[in-house]
Amino acid sequence: MNAEVIRAAYAASSRRDFDAALEAMDPKVEFHSSGLFPDLAPVYRGHEGMRSLWEAMFAPFESLRFDVERIVEGDDCAAVALRFYGQGKGSGAHTDLPHGHALRFEDGLVVEISAHATFEGALEAVGLRE
User: How confident is the model at residue 36 (pLDDT cuts 50, 70, 90)?
Assistant: First the structure.
């Protein structure tokens, strides 16, 4: 059930349709960054925080998309294997970065997202296995 919501939210983010992506998130959602993107704050809170996160993530890229490669679901959590594809502004440099997100849900909405360097790290963060 959550897999459809997860895929739709990442697809909306890739289209920069942040209102649609936020529909999957509780107003008190928290995003904990992994440190892989040095210009990001450690934590973003609430819908306004998520908008700030997206603004910071998209700023250096001409194009950026998030492809969901795998999802492992638990009762109130999920681990998501993502791949970030981007093309830098000005330089045209290409980015192809595998990544993992650990999500926690309450009442069908995402309440917490933590970013991890690997999918395995995301699985571990929410106590799931493949």
Answer: confident
